[in-house]
Amino acid sequence: MKHFLAKHATIKHRLYSLYYTLFSYGRGLIILTICLWAGNVVSAILPIMIPESIIGLLILFILLTFQLIPTCWIKNSCNLFMRYMTVLFIPAAMGIMDNYSLLLGNWIPIIFASVGGSVIVLYLTAFLTEHLHKKVVKTSDNRENQS
Question: Residue 59 belongs to what domain range?
Fold first, then answer.
């Protein structure tokens, strides 16, 4: 009899864990969907040239920044999306391949823009990192001199 109760408790615990996990994924997906729909509404109302999905991500960012929704509510769903992110890019890649002749005709500007943009980002990141590192070192040196 003791073994049966232990097995029953394990099953009950597993069911509770399954319900909690499904609820957690569902809640996160609902929040992400609501933010996407809100982005669609904002994009339809305002005359701005920002994609609806980006506006939805900004709304989600604002909600998380001001802690209007806890991060634990969407953590599982976001981890799920991040895990399968490459699968989500397949339709976009196929859309690019539909315009292969356009890419082939403009490959030189595309290469220069990609390499130039990467070099600019690397340079600015290195400059900013060096500047901030010098500022931190100066601040720590001033604190040591004051002590």
Answer: 1-87
Total domain count, the chain: 2
Q: What is the pTM of this model?
A: 0.59
- Please give the single-letter amino acid code of residue 129: T
Residues of the chain with pLDDT under 70: 1-9, 141, 143-147
Q: Are residues 132 and 69 in the same domain?
A: no
